[in-house]
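Journal club prep — side note

Before the paper discussion, L.F. wants everyone to see what a predicted structure for a comparable chain looks like in token form. Sequence:
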Amino acid sequence: MDPARIADDKKSEGIESANEIVRCPECSSTFVVEDATRGEKVCGGCGLVLSDHRIDTGAEWRAFSTEESDSRSRVGAPMRYTVHDKGLSTVIDWRDRDTSGRKLSPTRRSEIYRLRKWQIRSRVHSSLDRNLSQAMSELDRLASQLGIPQPIRELAALLYRKSIIKKLVRGRSIEAMVAATLYAACRIRQKPRPLDEVADGSRIDRKKLGQCYRLLLRNLDIKIPLSNPIDYISRFASQLELSSPVQLRTVEILHQSRDMGLTIGRDPLGLAAAAIYVASIMMDERRTQREIAEVARVTEVTVRNRYKEIVKRLGIDSMTIG
């Protein structure tokens, strides 16, 4: 049968998707009443039954408070991209005890041992599962070392799964691709990390990491927002043990620098480092150029050059802060 004719028949019967407005085919009314006890959708204008035998996907129990609802909930953990099987598989516990807590007999214990072994093998039975298992372990290790929050980890895992679908991982290092996806996820969520920092944590050469990152940009069609020096301020200031007034003054300096056009064509890390250096001197919490350069992973020459540009263009008295 013609698919277009089937679609027309469904529309004439008043069966539409949940995202569309349900309209009665008799009176053209959009007022629809759902009867959960009968599993029916009824037109509120003429009483025509639009659909019946609807499945109730809600819980079969009632709860009258949040605590009661949480205690009666029987669902498992949510689906997560950072687990190679998304957390949908089962696990046989390693403790050799039954549901009552009693120890198993030797015969039953050996049987459970064999079941557990084959269950683990069935979870990771294909090359794709093995790749994902190794990649998600590396992602968890790298993200924990860099202090990356869970939402960014989930985005990085999703990007890695997309790269597998595009066959970008084939012939490339898993560690390099994981580091590239994590770096891209930090940039997308506007919590960027320096490329050198990610490379040091992943034990991957900076050049290879940059190549994998550019490969993701070309093939996954992801939009990376422009790097903003302000995104680095809170983390750099925390590592340098600077107070909140220094951070606020640094943000003000960067806003003024952007209005003057100083941020065009400059490395955001160097600008952030120079702004912190200026603000720390103005607020009498001075840090040396070497300390700031080590935290920002730039050279002292970069900090010094950006510092001179900021002082000159913003009209800050160098004698006052010197």
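L.F.'s comment for the group: The first helix runs from residue 3 to 12. Keep this in mind when we get to the figures.
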